[in-house]
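BUG: 3D viewer hangs when loading the predicted structure for this chain

Environment: internal workstation, default settings.
Expected: structure renders.
Actual: progress bar stalls at 90%.

Input used:
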Amino acid sequence: MLDNTSVHDSKLFALLRVLKKKEVRELSLWLESPIHNTLQQVRDLYEGIRKYNRNFSRPLDKLTLLKYAGIEWSGTTDGKLLPQEEKALREVMHRLTVQIQDYILWKKTQEDELMLKRRMMDAFLERKLYKYLPKMMDKAKRELDSGVHRDNEHYEAAFQLAEMDFFLSIILHNRNTKAKEMQLLIDGLRQSFLSKLLKYYCAAVSRQKVLQVDYQYPFMDFVKQYLAVSEDKELPAIKVYYTLLLLMEDYKEEHYASLKNYLFTHLDLFSNVELRQFFNHMTNYCNWMVKQGRQQFVQEQHEIFEKGLELGCWSSGIYFSTHQFMHIVKNALKLGEIDWANNFVSHHKKELSPDIREHIANYALALMCFHNKQFSEAQGLLMQINFTEDFTYHLELRILLIKIYYETDNLSIADMDSHPLNYELEALRQNVSIRNKKMSESLRQSYNNFANVFKRILDRKKKLIIGQKLSAERVQKLQDELVNISPIVERDWLMEKVKLLKHPA
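Structure tokens produced before the viewer hung:
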């Protein structure tokens, strides 16, 4: 049975909350049409919710919904619904949910004019209205050619039109089908296939590097051999993914430069969704280069992030990725762009998922406070964060708290072994030692190496506190080892703390 909480968290209310103002009005007209909806209770329920709850955010109880739907209530003294009333309400809510889904699908279909034309041509073909098809086909081709984008969807649409043209040619001309139609069909199929295959090859290679898994690519060598000598590699979607694939295989800077130069001068050829994928791969490469000591790629990442923000591609059709959001903030802090980072958080946090929006914003602000050495403020912000959607954030927040405790420099002989810093470090070690199934081995090692190195730093710090002299050779050895430990998070901060051990204040 539905309780009042599950009513508000139901699929129906989730759908209602994503409707725009114009769509809320249009849906009323949709439900008034007997072609779409034949049940008055569905219309009454929608209008009742709409009038009471303009943005559909205020909770409503089941009894109120029952009355909105015009379903007779037994009038029980406790205000609860009888089983048959619960069933009737669920049925009306379900039918309203289906109607909203149908409306959203209709809206989406109307946005894609080429798909509409293709479906219309399919319908005409089925009904043998052949003589009207050539003119419809010519118009669809002109619209496709006049469009700006030359991404995967463009080549898929070109193939579908070539396929329709070929079938139409057979119907209208029978055995006299022109060779041109067949060649266009083959070319369209090949180009659509190559652009899509390369796209998913790039995605698979990326995942393979992160998750340390082995995927099979039986056609990859043939595709690369073909594209090395084919003019197809000059088609925008194929060119970009082919260059990206080469980059991901050998990580040569020349491929990165080629990819960036082409994309940044042909941004109009790709949708925001496609650009987001390209930019993500490029920032991954930049991140790898930074780990190799190429610090100029911190600025490269910043440029890509800024371009994505300018185009609006980071949140196009989706919530802003929390990982990307934090990556942007951390990268800006590396450049010392505090004001830029603060402005970014304030302007773009609304694009994060509502469930974790304030938590992620507080984490970003905590990082900025830490960067400004406002350690108590940073710790206060961490105390306001409470979400469990990603184990990585638990580790990151714990590391930030460890850094805050260490930077405040309030360890003393009296609390050396009871200081919260010891607890946080041990908790981090425990969390990392029991490998989460969702955590890659590389990521686990990164946090484990941090914990081990920091433990060695902390032990030496404690010796200084009790008045012992550190061995310069041992500290230098730790510094030399840290340079070569990989993977590891917070290498720069750890290196800074080791250097301070060599020259304590």
